[in-house]
Amino acid sequence: MGYIPRCIVGLKVVGIALLYALLAKLVLAFFSDSGNVTLVWFPAGLGMATFLLGGKRYWPGVFIGAFVGGMLVGDSWLISACIAVGNTLESWLGAWLLLGNPGFSLSLRHPRDFAWLTLTGIIAACFSALIGPMTLLLSKYLPSEALLPSMLHWWMADVFGIALVTPLILVWRNWPKDWFAPKRLLETLAFIGLSFLSGQTVFLSWFPNLLSVYGQAYWAFLFVVWAAVRFGRHGVLLLITMTAVQSLWGLQHQLGAFATAHLQSGLLNIWFYLSILASVGIPLALTLFHQQQTNQALQQSEARLSFALETIGTGAWDLDLQDYSVQRTHIHDQIFGYSHLLPQWTYHTFLGHVAPEHRDMVNAGFHHARTTHSNWDFECRIRRIDGETRWIRGSGCHQLGNSPRMTGILQDITEYKLAEEDRQLGMLFYQHCSEAMMITEADATIVSINPAFSRITGYPAEDVIGQNARILGSGRHDDTFFEAMWQTINTEGQWQGEIWNRRKNGELYVEQLSINTIFDRNGMPLRRIGLFFDITQRKLGEEQLWKQANFDPLTGIGNRRLFYDRLEQDIKKAQRGGWFVALLVVDIEHFKEINERFGYAKGDSILQEAAQRVLANVRETDLVARMDGAEFAIILTELEKIDSVERIAKLIIQKLAEPFTLEDNVAELNCRIGIAICPYDADNTEALKQAAMDAAKKCASQSYRFASPPAEL
């Protein structure tokens, strides 16, 4: 319950007190013999409704109203206070019992709600009926012989008030919205007007000669049925309230059906009359209301079911197991190719559409289900009226009743069957493909692999599923490589290229990898599929062929082909970057004599060691190549200055001049080095090579020479 400001609570307390006191004054003034005891106590219903709707915070309104009501009829303040305590305790106890009862609802939509309200009123009224008369007895206002009759009348009055006024307040706090709608306005006015005229006739003697006096009192039952059928709880309670006011007014003026000289006798008659009227009208209204709600719920359920079946393209059927006739929905016949609902359909009509190869299976399943009263589930192919072959799935269950029936649904599953076939083909390909496949989450967490993956990598499924794909990393690629790869994947959704990975046994291999991304309906990455195959042997073969074509088989350094390719590339790069390229031609003198003296095998070993000595004194980015016989070429690239060229030349001459040990012999080499600088000496391959060779021929042994004097460079 939300917070209510104290000022609002205070105003409501004042209003409740005034209304309670006014009702008490009216009842005690007109319907009490002694001024305190009556058979009609409307304030009891007001007090109960106050506690039910507002809670215990409004108890001062009930107490003050009851106290003021007693004072208005001449009771002393002590008697008024005691009676007010009894009335307040009655209302609080009744509300406490009802609110703590899980079977009771304030909406009063079920007969049990009125039953609980009446039963609680019977119990709660006992407290007021005990306190009130005892107070009057102790105050000498009531003789002792009148105590028990007064308690009974007091109790009846409070029960009457609770049973009439409390439901009236609880129900009518929600105004009936459809009564005065244009389509019901005439009926509403007729009901109210005729009910009023009937009450005036019966209880206030209007049109006294219209009906026999013995039949007049039963007119209200006719109207209470009308109210229950067409206007529900609101109409019944309005009619009972109207009848109560009219009958009490007639009793007060000695008119109508309950006119009598003895007030308490008349009130007792009215009490029983209204109780019977309420016991007829309220249960009838609630029963009809409950039936209406049930029908509405059933209609809504059927509408939802129909909508659901139409949404998923499902037909419904109802088969009579005696004559095999079938009631169907429109979608049922559409599945078999009919544009409209056929006037007649039987089980044999259905069986005629089933493909011949499935007909016996379907028929046997149906008769087994019918015999054993079990569910009937089937899948089969059918031939539609237009000749198209489709797949259907059906399910049926038995219905209990006088006529044995089976109801079920039917669905076209052709697309599902085709998708299932595609899935099975895809899974067959996935399992038996010679290329490795790996399915990952968007963050590269592995969710599935195929057997080829395990065969290539050595990892079984249990070792990699749930792991990140980086478990295969070889360490041969730097962060820049993977950053570029993932940028391409995130922007384009795919990537392909060669990548080095490591098997479970630690062996490196190179694979041709293709990565593709599956996106969800919102365009977000859902899965990534990696497809790769081992190209290690191919790469090794290509590398071997490349080495054979570009490297000298004796010394392991570059050959003439690699030399020319590299020199041409370095010259172009130097021209773009503004660098220098230095070409050194190393000519070893009289090597033919070494071969003749020591033999070709030892001569080859000398060349191999000479090549390694030269290679050890240049950078990794530089190239050393064997040109011919005992002639080497050195390409020094990306030189910002040429100062280091002369130093390298001197170092190479020094290293080659060191003796070469050949078992028991020692050999010494003499060499000359020619140096040409690009772009000073030449800006193309042949010219630069020729300039370096000419410079080598012109220089002395164990020396070097620039094609152009260093001072001019």
Automatic annotation (TrEMBL):
List the keywords (alphabetical): Cell membrane, Membrane, Transmembrane, Transmembrane helix
Q: Which Gene3D superfamilies match?
A: 2.10.70.100, 3.30.70.270, PAS domain
UniProt subcellular location? Cell membrane
Identify the InterPro entries for this entry. DGC-Regulatory_Protein, GGDEF_dom, MASE1, Nucleotide_cyclase, PAC, PAS, PAS-assoc_C, PAS-like_dom_sf
Tell me the Pfam families matching this sequence. GGDEF, MASE1, PAS_3, PAS_9
Listed CDD domains: GGDEF, PAS
Topology in the lipid bilayer is annotated as: Multi-pass membrane protein
Limits of the PAS domain: 434-468
Annotated PAC domain ranges read: 495-547
Q: What GO CC terms are in its UniProt record? A: plasma membrane
Question: What sequence ranges are listed for the domain GGDEF?
Answer: 579-709
> Is Ribosomal protein a UniProt keyword of this protein?
no
What SUPFAM superfamilies does this protein map onto?
Answer: Nucleotide cyclase, PYP-like sensor domain (PAS domain)
Q: Indicate the transmembrane segments per the record.
A: 7-31, 37-55, 62-86, 92-108, 115-134, 154-173, 185-207, 213-229, 270-289
Superkingdom field: Bacteria
Under which name does UniProt file this protein? Diguanylate cyclase
